[in-house]
Amino acid sequence: MPKQTFLNLSEEKRQIIVNAAVEEFAEHGFKAASINRIVAKSGISKGSFYQYFKDKMDVFRYLMDMLANEKIEFFKDKHPSSSNMDTFEYFRWLVKTGMEFNSVYPRMTRAVTRALLDEGLYYGEKFAEYRQLTTDTLAAMIKQALKRGEMDPSVDVELAVMVMNTWTNAITTYILNEGVKQKDIMKWVCSAKTQEKIDKLLYVMEYGLRKTESQFVKS
Amino acid sequence: MPKQTFLNLSEEKRQIIVNAAVEEFAEHGFKAASINRIVAKSGISKGSFYQYFKDKMDVFRYLMDMLANEKIEFFKDKHPSSSNMDTFEYFRWLVKTGMEFNSVYPRMTRAVTRALLDEGLYYGEKFAEYRQLTTDTLAAMIKQALKRGEMDPSVDVELAVMVMNTWTNAITTYILNEGVKQKDIMKWVCSAKTQEKIDKLLYVMEYGLRKTESQFVKS
DNA sequence: CGGTCATGTGACCAACTGGTCACATTGTAT
DNA sequence: ATACAATGTGACCAGTTGGTCACATGACCG
Fold first, then answer.
1. Residue B121 has what DSSP assignment?
2. Does A72 reside within a domain?
3. Which residues on chain A place their C-beta less than 8 Å from a C-beta of chain B?
4. CB-CB contact of A15 with A42 (8 Å)
5. What is the pTM of this model?
6. Which of A60, A210, B63, B69 is most exposed by smallest CB count within 10 Å?
């Protein structure tokens, strides 16, 4: 958590520092991110930096928390168009809305994901809890889909979780990599063409999970 | 390319140095990999190291080339059990054989892939050629599958390439992450359980791409 | 004005980094 | 034994890192 001194700063100054940190982590990952460059870019002295944050990890956690909170806020205002969606429709809505969010905060998303993967933090113990939450949520969705008969009963839950997780990550990576090349990411993500691409990708997954072994004659 | 002095070394000593480098890159990625640690671990002096290699990138490229050559050698000895495979069967064979290879050289694979992603080298210009090759190969496979009527004609090639690429990478990541936890990776990868998991993952993809029921129910 | 206290500063620290180089050691051929 | 080249060595270099600290600045209060 940042120290009180940081929270006392003007909104504007905080923004400058946060932006500098985001850029640094997005560009170099966690380990290689340089506090010297962050302070230089923000135009503050190193002493000040350490009056705002305990250490490097502290800024990073702050960015992570910011991103998580922004995401929660973002989703609060969004609601699926229909409440009678089937599980796959709902998942598709989730992914698409998630992509919209990513395109609002592309650098921050990149900074956090890159640093997490960089350090292997994501797979470490500290984030086991967070990962478990994602897994459980997906597992619940899948069980519901199975119950409703929307998914092939021979599909096992753990496998489906992996498939859905992989797919979400792959699409996120794609959006983040391709999106930064566009002049207006948000517009690009919301464009019919991109939406169709996401749809098609999700459909491939959907078809795979809806119909599997029961329809297939193994050799 | 390493200097002649390195190639003059005894097989044994070269192995020691290569192993140390592999461990270092696997553990820390490219940027954070330390030559000091490599020489300490190999028990050679820093001066010697720079008599063997031009610089850090030189060792890394050497490891990359080694891995590529080993892979070529590995695939030379392997052949699909049948020559009358359908495109998906062939792809499945490719993936599985690739996983076998990865489990023979798990640390080296990790070292190379990690460093590549770490530096963003993979997405840089230097590797555009290599990426293009992979893309072209996959695209050719997909076109063949479409021609043979094995794949839904409404699937577009670029999308299918992305799907297949994503799957391969996801499975590789999975194997590398889970595999290192096992006492005998090779055995684990070849075990019926793991093979079944890989099969299932590939089946999900396959069904998604085959799509139309009438086309994938074999007689 | 003086006093107090939060905030800002950059020189400084020890520990590293990749890379060099003058020198020591070894191997070989005469 | 001697000469000469190939190989091995670690102190050393300039540059970087994350983090500290004695001090400067300035805002508010009486």
1. G
2. no
3. 28-29, 31-32, 118, 123, 156, 159, 162-163, 166-167, 170, 174, 177, 197, 200-201, 203-209, 211-213, 215-217, 219
4. no
5. 0.87
6. B69
Residues A85 and A50 occupy one common structural domain: no
Q: Using only C-alpha atoms, what is the Rg of chain A?
A: 20
Quick one: A112 and A172 in the same domain?
A: yes
Judge whether B210 and B216 are in contact, CB under 8 Å: yes
Spell out which residues of chain A touch residue B204, defining contact as CB-CB under 8 Å.
159, 163, 205, 208-209, 212
Tokens 């982590």 — which residue? A25
Whole domain around residue B15: which residue ranges? 4-62
> For the domain that residue A116 is a member of, what is the CATH number?
1.10.357.10
State how far Cα B184 lies from the chain centre.
19
For residue A143, how many other CB atoms are within 10 A of its CB? 14
- Shared-domain flag, residues A132 and A195: yes
Q: What ipTM score was computed for the predicted complex, to two decimals?
A: 0.84
How many structural domains are present in chain A?
2
Q: Closest CB to B32: pick one of A31, A156, A216.
A: A31
pLDDT for residue B212 is more than 60: no
Q: Chain B partners of A217 at a C-beta cutoff of 8 Å?
A: 217-219
Measured in angstroms, what separates residue A47's CA from nucleotide D25's C1'? 14
The gap between the terminal CA atoms of chain B, to the nearest Å, is 54
Residue-level pLDDT at B211: 67
Residue with tokens 């690009």: A188
Q: Is residue A59 part of a domain?
A: yes
Give the domain CATH number at A44.
1.10.10.60
pLDDT digits (tens, 9 = 90+) for A41-64: 999 999 999 999 999 999 999 999
Which nucleotides of strand C lie under 7 Å from a protein CB? 6-12, 16-22
Angle at B166 between CA B164 and CA B170, to 5 degrees: 120
Distance in Å, alpha carbon of A4 to nearest chain B alpha carbon: 33
Q: Name the pLDDT band for B217 (thresholds 50, 70, 90).
A: very low
A17, A37, A63 - which closes a domain:
A63
Q: Which residues of B touch A118 (CB under 8 A)?
A: 29, 118
